[in-house]
Amino acid sequence: MEYTLTTKLLAEFLGTAILMIFGNGSVANVELKNTKGHHAGWLNIAMGYGFGVMFPVLMFGAVSGAHINPAMTLAQAVNGMFPWSDVLPYIIAQLLGAFAGQFIVFVTYYPHYKETEEAEAIFASFCTTDAHNDKVNYFLNEFFGTLVLVVGALCCLVLPWGKADPAAASIVVGFIVWGLVTSMGGPTGPGLNPARDLMPRLLHQLLPIPHKGSSRWGEAWIPVVAPICGAIVGAWMFQLFV
Questions:
Q1: Which homologous superfamily is 5-240 in?
Q2: Which keywords has UniProt assigned to this entry (predicted)?
Q3: In the chain, what are the domain boundaries?
Q4: What is the reported pTM?
């Protein structure tokens, strides 16, 4: 069944919002003061992001492709796998979805944001940064992490076995994200998605959160540019070898 562009854009909006609610919601649960999951640990966050990708792909994969990531949309377009005419509308829907999802996280954790005095903990529930304050490492981690994600996701969703059983493929994609957060997520978070970092960073700047600290705009280009570059190379590798 072919859906209208409006329906596809709504799916991208909702899918990206769900990604933020599960992903950054899990970070807020771990990092913010006096939550039920305070200090629950990195596996809690990895699980949140794994499910945050798995569920939208299960829900909307058959509708819009569930890119839920501007890097994935651009990578497919550059490699001839997605129409350029739909790129800008998809990215706008993804950005708005990320903004809405992050705002929901803020609203639901509002009392805990007020109680948390550590700027790093607050910032972590919005966007990424390099743990070593090394911009080169930041770029490389986001580049290679997104490359692996895109190759893995395309192998799951585009190859015949995935098309024959899209639910199974969606679950495997979720596990890829889960595994990437546990393995390559230590240096930066990770982002692997320009919308997942840019719009929450904007909200971090705008929202009146006590003790929130800097929004670190000087490094904000890295989790936007690096995932796009990594995704384009990943999609090219998929087409070349698979």
A1: Glycerol uptake facilitator protein. (1.20.1080.10)
A2: Membrane, Transmembrane, Transmembrane helix, Transport
A3: 5-240
A4: 0.96
CA dihedral 141, 218, 17, 132 (to 10 degrees): 40
